[in-house]
Amino acid sequence: MIDRDQVLHVARLARLRLSDEELERMPAELSKILEHVERMNRLDLEGVEPTSHVVELQNVMREDAPRPSLPRERALQGAPDAADGGFRVPSPGAS
Amino acid sequence: MSDLLTKTAAQQAELIRAGEVSGEEVFEFWRERAQDDELGSYLWVAGEDGGGELPPVAVKDLFCVEGVPSSAGSRILEGYLPVYTATSVRNLQAAGANVLGKTNQDEFAMGSSNENSGFGPVRNPWDRERVPGGSSGGSAAAVAAGTAPWAIGTDTGGSIRQPASLCGIVGLKPTYGAVSRYGMIAFASSLDQCGPLTRDVTDAAVMLRALAGRDPCDSTSIGLPDEVPLPSAERLDGLRFGSWGLEEEGLDAGVAEVCRRTLELIEELGGRVTDVDLPSARHGISAYYVIAPAEASANLARYDGVRYAYRTDDYTDLLSMYEHTRAEGFGAEVKRRIMIGTYALSSGYYEAYYGKAQQVRTRIVEDFRAAFEQVDFVVTPTSPTVAFKLGERTADPLAMYLSDYFTVPMPLAGTPAVSIPCGLSEGLPVGFQIAGPAFSEGRILDAAHALEKAIGFEGVPVPA
Q: ipTM of this model?
C-alpha cells in the first residue's frame, strides 16, 4: 500500500510534478499494482541469489584506440537552449 | 507491381536478385503503400528513394536513425533528430534493407495496446475497433495490413510477440545479447531486445541473420554463435514440446481451443507433447512490473529538458524546470511506471520489491533450465486473449499488464521465443508461442516453419 504522502515523496525523488488529479488517482492505482506484485511473497526465496543480468559476461574489452568524437555543434543541435557551446539551464541556486 | 503485396520479403528479394524488378521499384511500391496507411501505423514515411537488395523495412520509432524523427512514441522527444543510427538499423541497411518509415508504438515501449502512444492509437487491420497490441503495435499492424513488407520492433516483456499474435503475423524475440541495443531508446536495459515482425517464419530468419552480431558499442551484445540456417523442416519427428499455461486462469476459452488444436498438429507432424510446469513463471508479471519500471525510472531520468527535445516554458528554477518538463512531456503510463520504479528502488523498499523481484528472476531462469532438460521447446499461447477493443483496458492498468502473462517469463530468463499465427477465434488471430534455450533461434524457427506449413494460416484479407 502506498499513501498520498508517499506518492508525493516518490514524485519528488523522480522529479515529476503531479497534478491534483494525478495525486488523487495514484495512491489507489499504484497500491493495486503493488498488491499484485506482492504475490511474489508467496514464493520461498530464502537464500536465492538475485539475478540482475542474464548474460554472464565479465570485463568486456575493446581496443583503446582514439577516434573522433561527435563535433560540439552536432551534440548541441537538439538542445532546447544551447548557448556559448554548452547547454544553458537556469541557475540551480536561483529561486 | 501489385503482386509484390502477395510476396514475402524473401520472395521479393529473390525477384530483385533475378532482375525481374529493381530495388528502387520495390522501395517505391512500399513507400506508396506506407503513405496510404489508414491505421495510424506510421509516424514518419521516407520521402526519398532507397532501393536495395532487400525490400525496405519499417522501423519502430524508438530506433535512432540519423536525421530522421525518432521519438519513441513520446511527446517529450517530439522533433528529436538523432545524430547517429542504431546498430541494428545499420546492419539492415548494410544487408540491403533501407528504412521505409518509423512506426507508431506505446510511449517508450510501455504498453500492450499501442494506446499509450503520445501520437494517437493504431488500429488492428482485422477489426479497426480493436487494438493491434503493443508496444510494437505500428510495426505489427503495418506488416499485417500490407503497408510494410517486414518490420523491426523491440520486446521487453512481449512487445514483439504479443502484437504479432494480435495481428496474425510472425514475431521473434531473440536471445538477450543476440542483437545490439546500441541506438535503441532504452526502456529496461536488462530485458530490451530487438527482433523481426514478419509475414512468415522464413522472413524472420532472413532478417535475424542481418540483425544479429556482436557490437563494440553494446558490451552486452554477443551475437549468435552460428549463422541462422534458413528454416526448411516439414516434420517434427523426435522433437519434444512442453506445453505450459493452457489451464491458467484468465486464458480465453477460444484461444485455448485453437492452441490445443495446434498441439494435436504437432503430434501429427511427429512431435511429442507433454505438459511442463514453470512454477515461478506464474510470478513473472510480479517480477517484471518491478524490474522493468525500476530500470525505466533510471533510464528515463535523462529526459530533463536540458540536452534534447522538449523543455517546459513554465519554470522559475532548475528543479521546477525538471519537474514541469517531465510532467508535461510524459504520458500517464510512463509516469505510473516511473513512480512504481522509483518507489521500488527507494530507501526502505528496495529489498522488499527490487531485491525480491531479482530473486524471482533467478527462479524463472531455473524453471526454464529444468524444463529444457526434459523438452526441446516450451509452447504456450502468446496472448491470453485475441485483440481487445480500443479503450477496453485503459482504465485498468493491471488488466493491461496481464496481457503479458505468457510473454514476460522469456525476457526475464533471456531466452528466445517466436509467436506464429495458429488460427482464428471469433474471427481474430491467435498466436502460438515457441520458446527454446538461449541461442536456439535456428531450431525454434525450423520447428515454427514445419508448424506454419501445416497450419496454413492465411493473413488478413488485404484491402486492395
A: 0.94
